[in-house]
Design brief:
- The structure is a single chain.
- The protein has 237 residues and is largely without helices or strands.
- It is built from 3 helices and 10 strands, in the order ββββαβββββαβα.
- It has an 8-stranded parallel sheet, with no helix packed on it. A two-stranded parallel ribbon has the order 7-9.
- The longest helix is centred in the last third of the chain and has 8 residues.
- The relative contact order is 0.09.
Length: 237
């Protein structure tokens, strides 16, 4: 079982999802009335992927950690989604996703903060999309996500700085981050040559300071679907 089309007009499921022990994917994309994800009261070892894009979810349930096999969580366009569990909550409610490699929070326009603790628990995260969110900062703990290869922060219009990033990062898209000023991570790591080959796009980042511009000059970047080499464009205004 993959999708649940009858939920398009429901605010929450009427059936306890955790009873579906063989469920591998749950796709609720476009269920515009879906507001509350049910508690997962028992372990679901086969649930690998949750697609919840375009729903009205504001938060994740405390016991979502019982989806122990999850590897992908996609919440693109969830404009009501406000928060990710943080370290002020009991340990049992903090996201424990050691096997997850893809987290998509792109277009979550009410999301204003990423808690510091999350990156200590996402050791295998390889792709993170925060594009279009209202975050003002990225926690310095992001360098704990040692397998992160792709970071999408395009159109994060309130983001002002970037911390030191994981050395294995291969691509960053910061296009349209109009308030982005400093790239402390690039400045530090460039000295040691660790970011020389990173593919990056800072087009329309008109607030970059002089130091940031110096350390984010020409480099390899990729087209939307390939690793084609072209020149990164920067807005001078």
């Amino acid at each position: 079982m993959r999708s649940w089309p009858s939920l398009h007009k429901r605010s929450s499921p009427v059936f306890p999802i955790f009873k579906l022990k063989s469920l591998g994917e749950l796709v609720l994309n476009g269920c515009s009335s879906f507001e509350k994800f049910p508690e997962i009261l028992e372990p679901m070892e086969r649930l690998r992927r949750l697609e919840l894009g375009g729903t009205k979810l504001k938060e994740l349930p405390c016991l979502i950690e019982n989806a122990v096999g999850r590897k992908e969580l996609e919440l693109p366009g969830c404009r009501c989604f406000e928060s990710v569990p943080n370290s002020t909550l009991p340990r049992s409610t903090v996201i424990l996703w050691p096997s997850m490699y893809y987290l998509d929070l792109g277009g979550c326009t009410k999301l204003g903060e990423i808690p510091d603790c999350i990156f200590f628990r996402l050791k295998r995260l390889s792709r993170l999309d925060l594009g279009g969110s209202m975050i003002r900062r990225i926690p310095s703990t992001i360098n704990q996500a040692s397998e992160l290869g792709e970071l999408i922060i395009r159109n994060c219009e309130l983001l002002e700085s970037l911390p030191e990033l994981p050395y294995g990062l291969g691509y960053i898209n910061a296009r349209g981050c109009k308030r982005l000023k400093t790239l402390s991570g690039f400045t530090t790591a460039r000295t040691h040559g660790s970011y020389l080959n990173i593919a990056r796009d800072f087009y329309d980042c008109g607030s970059l300071d002089e130091n940031a511009r110096r350390y984010s000059g020409r480099t390899r970047t990729r087209a939307s679907t390939s690793l084609a080499v072209r020149e990164v464009k920067f807005q001078n205004g």
